[in-house]
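fyi for ur records
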Amino acid sequence: MSSTASAKNGTWRNWGGNVVSRPAREVTPASVEELAAAVRQAAEDGLTVKPVGTGHSFTSIAATDGVLIRPQLLTGIRKIDRDAMTVTVEAGTPLKRLNVALAREGLSLTNMGDIMEQTVSGATSTGTHGTGRDSASIAAQIRGLELVTADGSVLTCSEKENPEVFAAARIGLGALGIVTAITFAVEPVFLLTAREEPMPIDRVLAEFDALWAENEHFEFYWFPHTGSTNTKRNNRSAGPEKPVGQVAGWFEDEFLSNGVFQVAQWVGRAVPATVPTIARVSSRALSARTYTDIPYKVYTSPRRVRFVEMEYAVPREALTETLRELKAMVDRSDLRVSFPVEVRTAPADDISLSTASGRDSAYVAVHMFKGTPYQAYFTAAEHIFTAHEGRPHWGKVHTRDAEYFAGVYPRFGEFTALRDRLDPDRRFQNDYLRRVLGS
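which gave:
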């Protein structure tokens, strides 16, 4: 099983295995023209259209019973503009390939998420982000977009051209059109020094504002059933390069974080009573380490253990309270949570439906091992997040609807009005968009 979603006998499944759909047909266009023709043909046949990336969303945002568009032939770099410091890339390009290609050219994105399996369009359309004091999500680094709209025409947008489309389409949820190319701002490749170290959760929460302010990129993982966290600070560095050694890297990133962790998850799923003990051992297994490398080798890491995830963005100033409530809820419940809770931050941005739209945000992500019942945990967590006007990640499990979003996104109406204009017949509609945007 690869890292991408699978399709067998006409059935499409996402990476987490929690979403299944049966499209009427699949199309793999080799050019923007072919994609536009597929959209026009779908309209003639009265079918909806959905592009899918690698299926890393846990929501049914990519599910369709109409035409499934696979973008794997729309890949590669179209253009590097060293004067403007931008790179234009085809929508189906995996982030992994973009990162490697940019590094070869001596370039890098400023910030990125913690995995790089997704396509650039799938990652940006759902609001994928890493952590940053000053630098925001991947979508916030977009300088231009090309998309095929519902009538089969090609629309380009940027801050100067169709700016109202640009404001929304950077995180468009697949609702405004099918993204075919993205222009990203890039910079000369730089070095980051990562410092990972365990720290008690009480100390992390007490010192959170300082840890956030003193580091360009701060994040931490809290292990439920314990008072332990693993913190990670990434800051720009003059060098020299000091990558994680091959043996140490394999031991920490593959053996502990994927191999042993996988076995621990199997044990925890079979015998839930063992979970708190496993959590205590897990939280102590990772020791402190410092290394310096180019950005994508520091920001991202392999994630081979399959899970289901919910993540909410809360106002940054509400983070410590949110986390204390989450910890209290787990402590007094009979839940057995074997996956760490991930905490990251992002500065406010100007994208209509970005989870950080108009407010400095902190992200709290809860996970459960694939195949374990997650509903009770996620429901209790969501109750805490929504009490703080949380905004769920568009690609992760949540139960919110358009009415809720109209209350937590000041620019929600701006987005839906644009959708009415660009896709009046709802060519790009599916059940998920009907729920989160209204019909």
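The longest strand covers residues 191-200. thats all i got for now
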